[in-house]
Amino acid sequence: MANASGSRMSRQSSVMKRRSFWRLRQQWKLLGLFEIDQEHEFYDLTCMLKAGLKAAVQDAIDNPPVDVLTEADCAAVLKQVHEGFEMRTYAGPAFAFFRRSLGMSEKEYQLSLSSESPYLQFISNSKSKADFFLTNNKGFFLKTQSKREIQFLLTHLPKYLRHLERYPHSLLVKFLGVHSIIIAGRKKKYFIIMQSVFYPDERISERYDIKGCQVSRWTEPVPEGRQVIVVLKDLNFEGKAICLSHQRPWFIRQVKLDTQFLQGLNVLDYSLLVAFQPLHADELSHNFASIITRTTKSVDGRGCHQRAMVPGAISEESAILVSDLLSGASVYHTCEAAVDGKGNLQDVSLHSSPESSPELSQALAQNRRLLPNYKNPLHVIDGPELRYFVGIIDLFTVYSLRKRLEHLWKCIRYRGQTFSTVCPTQYARRLCQWVETHTL
Question: Which of these, 84, 282, 362, 397, could form a disulfide with 269 (CB 3.0-4.6 Å)?
Answer without folding.
Answer: 397
